[in-house]
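BUG: 3D viewer hangs when loading the predicted structure for this chain

Environment: internal workstation, default settings.
Expected: structure renders.
Actual: progress bar stalls at 90%.

Input used:
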Amino acid sequence: MGSETRSFGRSAGTLSAGVGAAGLLTYVFFALASHNLDPVAYGEVVVLWSAVFVSISVLHRPVEQLISRGVAERRARERPIGDVLRGAALIQAGVAIAFTVVALLLRGPIEDELLSGSEPLYWIYVAAVLAFAASFFARGYLAGDGRFGRLAGLLVSESASRLAFSLAVAVGIAAGRDAVAAGIVAAPLFSLLVVPAAVRRRAVGASVSPPTAIVGTPGARHGGAFAAAVFVIMLSEQVLLNGGPLLLRAFEGAAAAGFIFNVLMVARAPLLVFQGIAISLLPHLTRLRSRGGGDAEAAFSGSVGATLRAVAAFTAGIAVLVAAAGPALMQLAFGERFEYDRAGLLIVTAAMGLYLAATTLNQAALAQGQARRAAACWAACAAGFLGWSLLGIVDDPARRVELGITAAAAALCALLWRAYRDPRVRDADVPAPGSTEETEARLALADEAS
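Structure tokens produced before the viewer hung:
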């Protein structure tokens, strides 16, 4: 058991590294696109990206959770997983058919009002959402099977293949917006290349035993409640991170959406890298809490405090850098097609620090068995951000989004801090080390990096 647990830990560490690498590759994809497309074309790619990721979060994440939980529980009991996969495949097929029908019925508004009247972008949007159905199915299987190394490979190959399209435009092999956008639909398909190898290894390597780290399987009711809470957290994060570009597309047009997306990358890029740390933080904290006793509590608080201090120091360093050379660095990273103001970048830097702190506190709350309370905090802040953005109190739409996401991050940090310091523990929601709940939380964080 000890060697298997160590193997599980090593593969989870590989996932953390893979998530960080995937995030960096995604950053480079947009940096190259921003350099090589005009502001309107780049903004249209950003809007497409945001629309795809909001859609797949709503449509495919629940099935991914269903698969990861079902496979993990069957492996732990040494039972076949075929019925789980077949049932999930039927649900996924139904979701895909329903999405296709709705997308075709709403083609006019989607194509004309959201995607600037572009037929190619419309079909890329539809195809990408459908392609991610297969990708999320594979993610659920790999996570539930405890194959975090393969899952990391899937995420990295997805980001790398997407980057190849932006790079092709940069070096002159291809040209234009549609060539860059094609990477959004091609990436999930290329990423599936890691799956056959994983399945073959499982088939021929019967020596691979059930992942004994998957322990303490709870009842369906409790497990479903935890999965629902994680889904709400992830969907709220999508609203906060991808809602800004979509809102500015509605307020000001595609170029404004591209501008605010670049500004928010000041927050997104560190967050994507931090996801790798957060993936390791949750199991670390759950193991500390599971030990019980005063020493474990002190170690738990010490780990959270140390991470928060590291976040504060990192944020202060970024703030100094942004104050000194932020606009110039943004133009170096994303090209000179946009003018960036120092104040806006500093506001988003503050949002970054608050958001990283909130992510840390969220992991602590999950480890304490406060998944539902944490989900309520996230949902309230996401709703507040949308309400603020739509009220129009600040005339400049970009500044409105910058201030809104910073205020939402501050509120989220305060609410989660209160939850962490005054926990209301539900024993059924405490994720046992290596449990299906812990796996689902890791998987949600990994999805953000894609």
